[in-house]
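Homework help board

Subject: predicted structure for assignment chain

Our instructor gave us this sequence and asked us to write out the predicted structure in token form, then describe one feature. I got the tokens but I'm not sure how to describe them. Can anyone check?
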Amino acid sequence: MRSVIHKHLRNNEDLQVFLHGDIRKLDKAKQVAEKPAEVTSSSAGVIGGYLSWGWTQIGQSINYSLGVARLPEKTESDLKCDRLTDYGSSLHSSLSAVDNNTLSLVNDYKALARNWYAFSESINSLAEFENEQNEPGLGTLLAGVGKSADRIYDVYNKRQTE
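My token output:
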């Protein structure tokens, strides 16, 4: 561990208790820590500063030895990369929506073509029936509507194959 190499931490009693202590030693250290120490006003600043520095070093050593590292702050390059990634994700979402809508439109054209074909067949059958019933005017009119429905079917059928 790096604490063994560091000259101030090598012999630090608190660190040794923390690293190698069992429950009994940790409880004893806690009781000792809870007792107020007699500190003179002149030495308080020096001791407090040293303890603060020591605990900071212990925390950094523990983090380093356990592999717990803080992520560095993002640089301008990282931020640009994040924006580019967000743009790529947005573009992918948009293209996926276009693809889905196009597929839906093609399926709608297929369904519409099938409907026009069925309508055309029904109207042409009705035109034949009217001609058989000696209603040539109505038969001719329905046959014309049937031909128009056939043309519309052809348009939709052609569109779906393009």
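Reply (TA_rk): Your tokens look well-formed. For the description, you could write something like this. Residues 39-44 have pLDDT under 50 and may be disordered. That's the kind of observation they're looking for.
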